[in-house]
C-alpha cells in the first residue's frame, strides 16, 4: 500500500508540475518565458518529459489501452457519483483539480499494477522476452 501511495504522490507531482489551473506550472513558466528559452526551462522540461515517458510507458505496458479506458471509466463514474451525491461541487474550478488527480491516480495504478495484480490474484506477471 505504501508503494502505491508513493507512486500516487509522484504522479501527482508530475501532473501538477506540468500543468494546473493555479498559474504555477511548467506550462505557465514556458509560456511566460517565450520567446526566450533558458537552460533551467529546458532542463525542467526534459525532467518532466522523462517522468511522463516512464509513467505512460509503464501504464500502457501494465494496463494496456483497455485497462486505461476501464480505469478512466471507473474514476470518471466514481467522480460523477460523488458529484451526484453532493460530496463534490463544481464550484471554483474544482472539476479541473479532480480531473488532474484522476490522471495521477490512473498513472499510479499503471505503475503499480503488477504488484496490485499479484496481491489480488496470487499470480506473478512475467514479461515476454522476444529473441531476434
What is the structure about, briefly put?
This protein is 75% helix and 0% strand.
Describe the structure.
InterPro entries: DUF6524. This is DUF4175 domain-containing protein. The chain crosses the membrane at residues 33-56, 63-82, 94-113. The protein has one domain. The chain has 132 residues and is mainly α. The mean pLDDT is 89. Helix 3 (39-84) crosses helix 4 (94-121). It is built from four helices and no strands.
Q: Runs with pLDDT <50, length 5+?
A: none
Number of helical regions: 4
What class would the helix/strand composition place it in?
Answer: mainly alpha
Number of domains: 1
Order of helices and strands, N to C?
Answer: HHHH
Organism: Candidatus Methylocalor cossyra
Protein name: DUF4175 domain-containing protein
Keywords: Membrane, Transmembrane, Transmembrane helix
Transmembrane segments: 33-56, 63-82, 94-113
What labels describe this entry?
single chain, 132 residues, mainly alpha, 75% helix, 0% strand, DUF4175 domain-containing protein, DUF6524
Amino acid at each position: 500500500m505504501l508503494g502505491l501511495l508513493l507512486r500516487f504522490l509522484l504522479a501527482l507531482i508530475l501532473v501538477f508540475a506540468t500543468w494546473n489551473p493555479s498559474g504555477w506550472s511548467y506550462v505557465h513558466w514556458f509560456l511566460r518565458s517565450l520567446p526566450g528559452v533558458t537552460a533551467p526551462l529546458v532542463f525542467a522540461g526534459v525532467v518532466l518529459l522523462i517522468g511522463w515517458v516512464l509513467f505512460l510507458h509503464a501504464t500502457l505496458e501494465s494496463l494496456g489501452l483497455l485497462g486505461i479506458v476501464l480505469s478512466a471509466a471507473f474514476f470518471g463514474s466514481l467522480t460523477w457519483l460523488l458529484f451526484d451525491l453532493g460530496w463534490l461541487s463544481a464550484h471554483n474550478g474544482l472539476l479541473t483539480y479532480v480531473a488532474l488527480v484522476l490522471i495521477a491516480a490512473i498513472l499510479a495504478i499503471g505503475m503499480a499494477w503488477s504488484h496490485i495484480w499479484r496481491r489480488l490474484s496470487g499470480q506473478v506477471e512475467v514479461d515476454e522476452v522476444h529473441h531476434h
